[in-house]
Design brief:
The protein has about 325 residues and is of the alpha+beta class. Helices cover about 40% and strands about 20% of the residues. The chain contains twelve helices and twelve strands.
Length: about 325
């Protein structure tokens, strides 16, 4: 009996095994998220609208790596991101510059803008952001999240067309600055100016959460002439004395007390009936602040008492009504 190995037969069997193994690896190869740059996702959604998902990370962030390893490797997460979103990886500390529309951002600036981080406020990592097809902020998700949580949030926004829009109880009847000035000449009211820019994440939060509030909208519509002013528009504006200046110049004149002084967005300005600045309010203030602030000036309480006194009286009055 021949007890020797048949090397030719063994070699053939091994070849078949290797071929099958290679085929199986190709069939069952782990899919991956097709990450892209934000500017490419922005351009893509202009042509074929989809929501944008942004994973903001840094090389030193340990939980960012855990997110990559445990969550972005999940086949369900991968499928939803690849099929229903334009998924973006954004290094929050990169020196890379990004051109989005007519605006240029450094990577840290873009990360802060997308995550709607206030000036001088730190950005925690990891941070994930979901942006609507209209480049409106849908949701900011902070910290490490497991696959099941992320699949639920991704599915919610992907399959709910109205999920990006908080239901508005009311809307402000915005007008142009010159129209507000002219209207105040005929029927004196104070003028409220909301200074914004398209790239400003907190401006969008202010629109979504504060100017949609029924009480805030009612006060602005009934007791003010409310103005929307794009700080980066090239549109010319007419001043009360008849002079014409650009929207950018008007925004700077209203938002600052000194020529050349820098200001942040969003910026709100309240003018008296003669279009003279009474006060400036910065940041995405909530309705519970804006309501008494608007009443403080529209009802002329500012002529009789300090803001500190009035705000305390207002809070006490609200507490009594809710007892």
């Amino acid at each position: 009996m021949n007890s020797g190995f048949n090397f030719r037969s063994l070699s053939a069997k091994l070849s078949i095994v290797l071929i099958l193994a290679g085929s199986m690896n190709r069939v069952y190869a782990q899919p991956k998220v097709r990450w892209m740059k934000f500017e490419d996702a922005y351009a893509a959604t202009q042509k074929n609208p989809r929501k944008i998902f942004v994973d903001i990370y840094a090389d030193w962030c340990r939980w960012c790596k855990v997110l990559d390893r445990d969550t972005f490797s999940d086949t369900g997460v991968i499928r939803i991101l690849n099929e229903h979103y334009y998924p973006v990886k954004l290094d929050s500390e990169s020196k890379e510059m990004h051109t989005v529309g007519n605006n240029k951002f450094s990577s840290p600036e873009l990360a802060a803008t997308l995550a709607a981080v206030k000036p001088n406020e730190g950005l925690g990592l990891p941070t994930m952001v979901i942006i609507s097809e209209e480049i409106q902020l849908c949701e900011v998700i902070q910290g490490f999240r497991k696959p099941d949580f992320l699949k639920e949030r991704l599915s919610f926004f992907a399959f709910n067309k109205n999920a990006a829009q908080s239901p508005k109880k009311a809307s402000v009847k915005w007008m142009k600055f010159e129209d507000a000035v002219e209207a105040s000449r005929k029927e004196p009211r104070k003028i409220f100016v909301d200074i914004y820019a398209d790239w400003c994440g907190w401006c969008k939060v202010l629109d979504r959460d504060t100017f949609s509030d029924s009480v805030v909208a009612s006060i602005l519509n009934g007791q003010y002439y409310p103005v929307k002013l794009d700080a980066e528009s090239k549109e010319m504006q007419t001043l009360p004395d008849g002079r014409k200046i650009s929207s950018t110049e008007l925004a700077a004149n209203l938002a600052t007390s000194k020529p050349g002084e820098r200001y942040g967005l969003p910026a709100m300005v309240i003018l008296n009936e003669k279009a003279i600045v009474l006060t400036r309010i910065s940041g995405a203030q909530k309705p519970d602040f804006m309501t008494p602030a608007l009443l403080f000036f529209s009802k002329n309480h500012y002529l009789e008492k300090s803001w500190e006194t009035y705000s305390q009286e207002y809070l006490q009055q609200q507490a009594k009504q809710h007892k």
